[in-house]
Amino acid sequence: MARQIRRTRRGEIQLRLPEGEQTLLRGVAASTRALLADGDDPALRRLFPPAYDDPELEQEYREMTGGQLAAGRERALQHLEATVDRKVLSEEDADMWLRALNDVRLVLGTRLDVTEDLDWDVRPQDPRAPELALYAYVSWIQEQLVAASA
User: What is the residue range of 41's domain?
Assistant: First the structure.
């Protein structure tokens, strides 16, 4: 597959995402934001891992930082949605994209129970096949963005 994100000679991060992929990324960012707004989905557990073993300390930590952490994640996802049709990203845009793509991957990976031992030889009939393909695609886009940002 041809690279769709690259750094130009002028140092810009150039995007060449087809409209269908822009729509896909916009949709996955929006659905992840909806999960964040709900806040109770078990797929969010890797976005907000426990900081303390003690339940009281953990509750206090969540009350003090939970809103701020969720707001930062939501901003990154909104930014991805708003900028997915651009042809060029700034360094700040790329950073927000990386944050959003990472969150999408964490949610999908948690939902699909993705581990290092996952057998990627998935048959099309497997009910997880569409979401595993989406996980692989988001990972590929993130990989390209990391390479272009380096």
Answer: 5-149
User: Can you give the pTM of this predicted structure?
Assistant: 0.89
Instruction: Give the separation between CA 96 and CA 129, rounded to whole angstroms.
Output: 28
- The answer to whether the CB of 14 falls within 8 A of the CB of 88 is yes
Task: For residue 87, give the DSSP letter.
Answer: S
Number of domains in the chain: 1
Interaxial angle between packed helices 19-38 and 55-83, expressed in degrees from 0 to 180 and rounded to the nearest 10: 150
Q: Report how far residue 107's alpha carbon sits from residue 113's, in angstroms, rounded to the nearest whole number.
A: 10
pLDDT in tens, 21-52: 999 999 999 999 999 998 889 999 899 888 99
Contact (CB, 8 A) for 143 and 98: no
First to last CA, the chain: 21
Q: Which helix (H) or strand (E) holds 3?
A: none
